[in-house]
Specification:
The complex is a heterotrimer of chains A (376), B (413) and C (294). Chain B is an alpha/beta fold and 413 residues long. Chain B contains 13 helices and 15 strands. In chain B, the strands form three sheets. Chain B has a seven-stranded mixed β-sheet with strand order 7-6-8-9-10-14-15, with helices on both faces. Chain B has a five-stranded parallel β-sheet with strand order 2-1-3-4-5, sandwiched between helices. A three-stranded antiparallel β-sheet of chain B has the order 11-12-13, covered by helices on one side. In chain B, β3, α4 and β4 (141-143) form a beta-alpha-beta unit. In chain B, α2 (60-79) runs parallel beside α12 and α12 crosses α13. The N and C termini of chain B lie far apart (67 Å). Chain C has a domain at 2-117 and 140-221. Chain C has a two-stranded antiparallel ribbon. The chains are: A mainly alpha (376), B alpha/beta (413), C mainly alpha (294). At the A-B interface, α1, α2, α4, α6 and β3 of A face α1, β2, α3, α4 and α6 of B. Chain B: Pfam families: Peripla_BP_5.
Chain lengths: 376, 413, 294
């Protein structure tokens, strides 16, 4: 019975998203919900990497941005027609399409780029980082720096990326006109459907050997190493999956929001993606997605009701949830099973305060011994 | 067993999702034309309008003042009986300094609140983000800030200066009054400075002025050591500054620190108004030049009233600046258009816009119905010891807006 | 030659700024494992302290000198409050402190915006820092020279405290081995608080100094925080010497790249270079294993 529990939750979410929401929401509100779904898809990946894997991925905006810009570039080229030049390039640039844009003219190639490029980037970065056993705070800050660098790079290339303006004003999406509310609804169903499928995929993943290993790595990286599995590979796989999910979320975000700009991929946006995951419950199955939807909804309503005050709410949310409710709403509902939420993300951390006080001395000794052993 | 069970659910749900997606695909194909119906409610004795300014984030520094002057104009209009007998009801939204949020909130104001017109935006990116929203929904935006030109949307009225009302007059001033032979360009790395500098370089080439350097810093950058070194080494006759926001503070402190002065190498800025002067420091700016269409020091009864009222509403220390004045004016221009059209309908208002004029604090302005900009007088100012800006040169009469610079034969986009 | 010299000077002064903002982080991040994203807002608080002092003290000549210790105290008190109210419950979850303190930072920014208003404030520089002095033919702004000296003084003071005072010994003992320190009667709780006070106070000092270079506004901290963390990470967490080398190295790299390329590209390359560097030396310039401070 207990194993069915998450599926009941999933079913409720599915009914809510696919039946209830389209029935009661206006086109505008449904469009917003579609946008939250995009964030939620990225959040599902963060749940895997951070909640299950203990990797604080502070720079998911990088992958969200790769997906979003790849999609946006394709839509711009499709709008321009065969051989055409996107409008903004005529305005700011040399009125010529740069070579690295060309492959994205093809819709099929654009989809491939959206799925493969983030996997490649995350794979290379992860390989370098995890094999060198960079973890904890080091990893978090590195990933944040990459998101920052990506955003600065985009801003600096006005001629080819639209700079701070980003890319917007899309007419069509794979042949469908974007001004038509019926097509907007189609996009909503696409986003909600992919979100639901990705949650199911996680449900399956969490139960595989890989899912178990990932939690084991989070809670005791050295022990996993001693058992003969390289933790780096496990973390790498989780990180790549999270990157691809973020990229898919970003790609869907573009036709739905109608714009992508460097502000959507930078440091602030990246941390914003974590808010929902923390609220919902990082290690639970539904938590990240539901949390992301809730945070999106709260941001819209609160900023409409109290313009200018969203920072207060977002700040308070981070403080209160993480301080008092590290397992998120899932913890409140008792939904967190044996892979419970907040244990462990520290045990493998490099910080001197990383281990419970009582055990500090012996753990330190055994860890450095094991590291030396592994280094040989 | 577990795995099998979940994979069955997975398969079932994929089919479900894809099925739903497929059935929902009934919409228009690309190439069809948009039709949209306005939901503006004109039956009551109030009419809704939207203010969309960044009240949080990096741009709040500038945009909150625009919000204040818009609010003041709305209050005045309401006290005076409203527009077509209807009181204005303000719906205010926070753009949060992010283009994506501007697009979302603009959609909300149009589709959800059904406002008759929206006033706001500041950065080029916020305007570019809102443009397709207003065009797609056939709604009205009044944009109050000087910008890079090369744009003229059917659904936007531009009440700030376009390039031929600010940048080109500034160059004329430098050439005719300061007799410069060379110039150095410093700007933030985004669309406005890059486009402005593109224009400046072509102007310079046509007028025998040497461009000795062109430097861009990331938005919000505060490290100007290298840039000022380069400016100093180049030794140009003047510096044309298109930096935005906080970067100006760091730039001018460094400029002064390295011993560069307004008399030896003047800086002409196009994004520093009265509001920004105290932040940069009067001592760092005194004697430097700015180019705008309005200054607080303009000596006219209309402006004196504007300044007095604004100080009464926002404290004696409050100053008025060009974008605030343009925003204030934009609300009155919309009122004029609505009253001329005798309708709140977007198309009626646009049709009536040509020739609508208003006795603004900057002087009388008139709407060009063709390109939706307004005729404005260019004023070159010099920062004085009180932190206000004195007019030192003027185009004397309003300059007709020419966003695409069609009347300048040296311009090739 | 002149251009080269200019870049070296610009690089050193940029490095001094980085050092100043990263110094406090080295303490709190390196020694206590707390990733304090609100450090940037403590810097902002220091800058606003300088502003408030400048409105009270009429003499601009004196106000900077009063603002420096005042900034230290304000930053330190904010840090102490943060430690006592939030962080003390979270020492077992160091990664989570990052998000909590980010939230605190957001709130502090908005508070500043509500108290002081969104527009930037001017903090007038004292007359004795006006202008520049020629060094090897290069006009070196006095404000930048002041910041280099100040950074040096802060490092020296911090080293002195850690080496020669009872508190410093307690901090070093606690960092070295918390349990043993407790057994010999050191109150690690009190030591933690003292460490956090000093680390956050240094952020306040940095904030006061930054008013000489840039603007004083609610977003002051955000523009520095990522770089500050990178300096600490590159230097090797918990290492003063490493932090100094890292700050100067990054400052110089940035200056040379900014000269050759555009500012944006220079920043991106610096970030990527740091990522690449950490592949070579994951523990930073100085190895972290001994975890000593100096």
């Amino acid at each position: 019975m207990k194993k069915l529990y998450p599926y009941v939750g999933w079913l409720l979410l599915a009914i809510g998203l696919l039946v209830l929401a389209p029935a009661v929401l206006s086109d505008f509100r449904l469009g917003l919900l579609a946008k939250y779904c995009c964030y939620a898809i990225a959040a599902v990946g963060i749940g895997l990497a951070w909640g299950r894997g203990g990797m604080l991925v502070l720079g998911q905006g990088l992958y969200f941005g790769i997906g979003a810009y790849a999609m946006a570039m394709h839509l711009k080229l499709a709008d321009a027609g065969p051989g055409g030049v996107p409008d903004f390039m005529a305005l700011y640039g040399d009125a010529a399409v740069p070579g690295w844009w060309e492959p994205l003219r093809s819709g099929a190639l654009a989809v491939v780029v959206i799925l493969v490029l983030p996997a490649l980037v995350a794979g290379l970065l992860g390989l370098a980082v995890f094999k060198r056993r960079i973890k904890g705070a080091y990893f978090a800050i590195l990933s944040q720096a990459l998101a920052a660098a990506f955003a600065i790079l985009l801003v600096g290339q006005v001629k080819t990326t639209g700079g701070a303006n980003g890319l917007n004003n899309f007419q069509g999406f794979f042949g469908y006109a974007l001004f038509d509310p019926a097509n907007k609804r189609m996009l909503y169903f696409l986003a909600a459907g992919i979100l639901l499928v990705s949650i199911l995929a996680m449900a399956w993943l969490y139960r595989t050997r890989f899912g178990e290993l990932l939690v084991a790595v989070r809670d005791g990286e050295e022990r996993v190493r001693f058992l003969g599995t390289d933790p780096a590979n496990v973390k790498l796989a989780a990180y790549v999956i999270a990157a691809v999910l973020a990229s898919i979320g970003g790609a869907l975000f573009v036709p739905i929001a109608g714009i992508v700009s460097p502000d959507d991929v930078g440091v602030v946006a990246s941390i914003g993606l974590l808010a929902g995951v923390a609220l919902g419950g990082r290690a639970s199955l539904l938590g990240p997605a539901v949390g992301a939807l809730l945070v999106g909804y709260a941001e819209t309503t609160l900023s409409e009701a109290f313009p200018g005050s969203w920072s207060y709410f977002q700040g308070a949310l981070f403080v209160l949830v993480i301080l008092l409710l590290p397992g998120g709403l899932a913890q409140l509902l008792g939904l967190v099973g044996r892979a419970n939420a907040h244990r462990g993300d520290s045990a493998s951390d490099h910080s001197p305060r990383g281990v419970p006080r009582g055990k500090r001395g012996e753990t330190e000794v055994s860890r450095s011994a094991s590291e030396e052993a592994a280094a040989r | 067993m577990r795995t099998k069970f979940s994979s069955r659910i997975l398969a079932a749900s994929s089919v479900l999702a894809l099925g739903l997606t497929a059935t929902a695909c009934g919409g228009a194909k690309t190439g069809d034309t948009a039709t949209s119906e306005s939901c503006v409610d004109t039956s009551g004795d109030t009419i809704k309008i939207g203010f969309l300014n960044s009240l949080s984030g990096t741009m709040a520094i500038s945009e909150t003042t625009v919000f204040k002057s818009l609010s003041m104009a709305a209050k005045e209009i309401n006290a005076d009986g409203g527009v077509l007998g209807k009181k204005l009801e303000i719906v205010s939204e926070d753009g949060q300094s992010e283009p994506t949020v501007f697009a979302e909130k603009a959609t909300k104001l149009i589709q959800d609140d059904c406002v008759a017109a929206v006033f706001g935006g500041w950065t080029s990116s916020s305007r570019k983000a809102m443009l397709p929203v207003f065009e797609g929904n056939d709604a009205l935006l009044f944009y109050p800030v000087q910008y890079e030109g090369l744009e003229s949307s059917h659904n936007i009225f531009y009440t700030g200066a376009t390039t031929n009302q600010q940048i080109i007059p500034a160059l004329d001033f430098l050439k005719q009054e300061k007799k410069i032979k060379s110039i150095f360009l410093v700007g933030s790395d985004y669309v406005f400075p890059r486009t402005a500098n593109k224009i400046i370089k072509q102007y310079a080439a046509a007028n025998g002025i040497k461009v000795l350097g062109e430097e861009y810093q990331p938005l919000g950058s505060t490290d100007f050591g290298t840039v000022v070194d380069k400016v100093k080494a180049a030794g140009a006759d003047a510096v044309f500054n298109t930096l935005n926001g906080d970067s100006n503070v760091a730039f001018f402190k460094e400029y002064k620190g390295k011993g560069l002065t307004a008399s030896a190498m003047p800086v002409l800025s196009v994004s520093i108004a009265e509001e920004e002067v105290p932040g940069v420091g009067v001592g760092n700016l005194e004697g430097q030049y700015t180019a705008w269409n309005y200054y607080q020091t303009i000596d006219s009864p209309t402006n004196q009233k504007f300044v007095t009222d604004f100080k009464a509403a926002n404290g004696a220390k409050a100053v008025t600046s060009d974008p605030m004045e343009a925003a204030y004016t934009s609300l009155y221009l919309w009122k004029g258009m609505v009253e001329k059209a005798d309708s709140f309908d977007v198309e009626d208002v646009i049709d009536a816009s040509d020739g609508v004029s208003y006795d603004a604090p900057e002087g009388t302005v008139e709407v060009d119905g063709e390109n939706h900009h307004i005729a404005k007088t260019a004023l070159i100012g010099q920062v004085n010891s009180e932190g206000l800006i004195d007019t030192v040169w003027s185009s004397d009469k309003p300059i007709e807006p020419d966003p695409y610079l069609k009347s300048y034969d040296w311009w090739k986009n | 030659m002149d251009a080269l010299l200019a870049q070296v000077f610009t690089g050193i002064s940029a490095g001094a700024v980085l050092l100043l903002i990263a110094l406090g982080l080295t303490l709190t991040f390196g020694q206590m494992g707390v990733i304090n994203m609100a450090h940037g807002e403590f810097i902002m608080a220091g800058a606003y302290t300088a502003y408030v002092v400048s409105t009270i003290v009429a003499s601009t000549e004196l106000s900077l000198l009063i603002a420096l210790p005042a900034g230290f105290v304000i930053g330190g008190l904010l840090g102490l409050a943060l430690e006592a109210s939030v962080l003390r419950w979270m020492y077992a979850r160091p990664l989570d402190t990052l998000l909590v303190t980010y939230g605190v930072g957001l709130v502090l920014q908005q508070v500043a915006r509500d108290i002081f208003g969104a527009p930037a404030k001017e903090v007038p520089a004292p007359g004795w820092l006006d202008g520049s002095i020629p060094i090897l033919g290069y006009d070196f702004p006095l404000t930048r020279l002041f910041i280099i000296v100040l950074a040096g003084l802060c490092v020296a003071a911090l080293l002195a405290v850690l080496r020669f005072t009872a508190l410093g010994r307690e901090i070093r003992a606690t960092v070295g081995n918390r349990d043993l320190a407790e057994t010999i009667g050191i109150s690690t709780r009190r030591t933690d608080q003292a460490t956090f006070f000093i680390g956050s106070g240094l952020a306040g000092v940095a904030g006061v100094a930054l008013t000489l270079l840039g603007s004083t506004g609610p977003n002051l901290g955000t523009s520095y925080i990522v770089q500050a963390f990178l300096v600490v990470v590159v230097g090797g967490i918990g290492h003063l010497k490493g932090t100094i080398v890292a700050a100067l190295g990054i400052g110089l790299l940035q200056a040379f790249l900014a000269h050759a390329l555009t500012g944006s590209v220079a920043q991106v390359i610096v970030f990527l270079a740091i990522v690449a560097f950490l592949q070579l030396r994951p523990q930073g310039i100085l190895s972290v294993r001994t975890r000593s401070l100096a």
